[in-house]
Design brief:
252 residues, nine-stranded mixed β-sheet, two-stranded antiparallel ribbon, 7 helices, alpha/beta, 11 strands
Amino acid sequence: MRILLTNDDGIQAPGLRALYRELKRAGLEVHCVAPISEMSAVGHAITFAMPLRVKEFVENGFRGQGVSGTPADCVKLGISTLLEAKPDLVVSGINAGANVGVDILYSGTVSAATEGVLMGYPALAVSMDTFHLQDPGEQAAWTARFVQDFDWSAIPDKTVLNLNFPHCPLSEAKGLTLCRQTPVPYEDWYEQRNDPRGRPYYWLDGVIPPEKLDAASDRALLTEGHITLTPLRFDFTCEHTLEYLKGTLKRS
């Protein structure tokens, strides 16, 4: 199996390096194309008003190509140009920070996987519920086994699998749980602070209110210690509203 590995935390991020190591250890062919610098929360942005640069990274058993662009850029450029042969699977991660609920709209990690499925390839997004990711070796090894054992041909077109690990040792996790994405949005606020020269700046913060969560949703289950897996299909058409509008516009 040939893997295109990417992320949004950057090509030197510990989550990507751990996943690269474990996928290679499992005997898979891994080609890494990832942003040179951190590109968290850039969503599905692509670069078209300036050129993309590529830098080779070869160090400590790792080989990859860093791109001066977004996660979606990396997948588009990797598949169309940089890889000598097409991948069997696109894997994005391991991301520092969960990607559940509305995170999928902001996430460069999920967007990289989404670009893969839009180009016709199965894709997996992988994240862990902590922003202080050191070396998630256990989670990376678990993911490598999942990648090997799963029947990727059974996943429909335009569908991403979104995998999230809880913030605990793998031995303490409650196992894999299939679940829905939570529709509950963040309650956001901005903290105003002052820089050393006394000028104000603003820092975004927010939470998904736990009292509004469905107990069977990804955010709630991840908080309880489950490994969550959610299939995401990127067809935004609301069929119910479409049928309603057809009837309404015909009458008018």
